Amino acid sequence: MCGIVGYIGNNQAKDILIKGLQKLEYRGYDSAGIALVNDSGVELHKEKGRIAALEDAIGKEGKGTTGIGHTRWATHGAPSRENAHPHQSISGRFTLVHNGVIENYQQLKREYLADVNMASETDTEVIVQLVESFAEKGENIDEAFRRALSLLHGSYAIALIDKEDNDTIYVGKNKSPLLVGVGDDVSVVASDAMAMLHITKEFVEIMDQEIVIVKQDGIQVKKLDGTVVERDTFTTDIDESDTEKGTYNHFMLKEIDEQPFVIRNIIQKYQDDDDGDIKLDNAIRAALNDADRLYVIAAGTSYHAGLVGKELMEKVADKPTEVHIASEFLYNEPLLSKNPLFIFISQSGETADCRGVLVNVKEKGYKSLTITNVPGSTLTREADFTLHTHAGPEIAVASTKAYTAQMAVFSILAMDGARAQGINTGFNAINELGLIANAMETLCDQKDRMEQVARDYMFDTRNCFFIGRAMDYHVVQEGALKLKEISYIQAEGFAGGELKHGTIALIEDGTPVVGVTTQEHVNANIRGNIQEVIARGANACIISTEATKEEGDNIVLPNINELLTPLISVVPLQLISYYAALHRGCDVDKPRNLAKSVTVE
Ligand code: M6R
């Protein structure tokens, strides 16, 4: 969702801010803007649409060595130039960017700003007008800023500049991500470290309800009551090249291709150097062992990984597990067991729906574990334990390598849980993951074949169905999500046996149906379901394994442990979606209306 950058240094800020915003494009946005402080005051530029449109509008203008920038994903008010950030106070003295949602903005407007004519429909604008109104009453800027923030209910990451002071950016944060970076005679602000890696790798974490007074030669962290807080810096291990496309046209294809490396990386990170077996933190092992039931909470693709995770936890580690959509769990909590362990799965570690659940379960004193790709993210900081998926930055909005990494980490968790209880699983997760990495490589090498399947089944269709049973049912739900989010083809994933209870009515001549069959015990059943749709005119595409294949199947996967086949059966589905979207001229990496990091409920 919205992205924030800021810079104070010796160089002109414009290009640095624009580059930073480009690095945040992956989060999803519909307008962008920057503001620069210079000798003539504040220069403000904002445009609806892509960053390229903003750059065109700025042209040769844009002077100043201090500035802030923003990409907006509309919540309050349509995507437009007026609603784009930065927003300015009435006198033009203060300029501000914001990520998050201010729940009480209407009330604040009524109470404090009744005589102010707002220039936008946003919740954000009240913040900058509040700062100005408090500053006008004689408070210094630090006080006015802290006072304004202490009135806000909701989530925010904020950066504010003052026309009369070109050496300070005031930043504040509550529930929305924001980092401050420090370098040699330079300071930066960013929603995500990767936006400012071209300036520094040293960052400072900001906690909720803290502000930071950022100057070129140093920073000061304070609580909202003004107490000064000491905070060390950390060095991010993200490599700048991880955030570049390299020779690829799209991040999505690059990230699909990276999956074998990610799996090998996970093996390394979770393997004990001494005995070569899985190594999990003792505290996590104990928490898992103590729990009488696991509650997996996630959204979107991460939820689909959770469905596979549940199967692994129950079938391998004998642990009763439920999987819940975070936004549903948040307002419709099921009956809980006596001693639950909550597992939050989130690529970004920032998903607001998950965080809402985490806040609630912490209040009740339950233990929590986050499985995430972003160390230092909100869910990581707030949960008791974290398992890192080590997939490297995932930039394409459509999640691919993060999904397979989440399932791989679940397989490690399940194996460890089994071992802790003395259960003989008959397989070794490390060996199996090695085979999976090889199988993924084989599949990634068959791009021509995947493109052909996309051509034969998806290029011109309006809709598409995916069916599977058992583990395959979970994967087809992910396959359908992948296809719809990037190609805009209406796609749904169903349990094979469920079609004749309603959905089969939608099958017409030529309707594409992708059947996935990797589970031997239901191979005959799903093939029966495929015959039922063929009999009604469907254009059926079958993905099987060496163990389940029949003549005429479109894609045959290498044999691996059946329980872990989702890690490889999703690869053709990802590639087919990619080629379908490409052919249909869609913006593969930045599909419409979507954001990478969903920081509002
Ligand atoms: O960052 P998270 O894993 O918590 O995000 C959850 C979903 O928003 C995400 O998986 C979304 O469904 C992806 N765009 C799917 O490709």
Describe this structure in words.
The protein is an alpha/beta fold. The chain folds into three domains: 3-244, 4-Layer Sandwich (Glutamine Phosphoribosylpyrophosphate, subunit 1, domain 1); 248-445, 3-Layer(aba) Sandwich (Rossmann fold); 446-601, Glucose-6-phosphate isomerase like protein, domain 1 (Rossmann fold, 3-Layer(aba) Sandwich). The chain is built from 18 helices and 25 strands. The strands form four sheets. An eight-stranded antiparallel β-sheet has the order 3-2-4-1-10-9-11-15, covered by helices on one side. Strands 5-6-7-8-12-13-14 form a seven-stranded antiparallel β-sheet. Strands 17-16-18-19-20 form a five-stranded parallel β-sheet, sandwiched between helices. The longest helix has 20 residues, at 401-420. It is globular. The chain binds 5-amino-5-deoxy-1-O-phosphono-D-mannitol (M6R). Residues 299-302, 346-348, 351, 354, 397-399, 481, 485, 594, 598 line the site of 5-amino-5-deoxy-1-O-phosphono-D-mannitol.
